[in-house]
Amino acid sequence: MPDRPDKPSPPSSDQLAAAHDRTIPDVIGPDLRVLFAGINPGLYSAATGHHFARPGNRFWPTLHRGGFTPRQFRPDEQHELLDLGIGITNFVARATAKANELTSDELHAGGRNLIHTVERYRPGWLAVLGVTAYRAALGPKDAKVGEQKSQFSSTKVWLLPNPSGLNAHWTPAALAEEFGRLKAVSG
Question: What is the pLDDT of residues 123-137, one digit of tens each?
Answer without folding.
Answer: 999 999 999 999 999
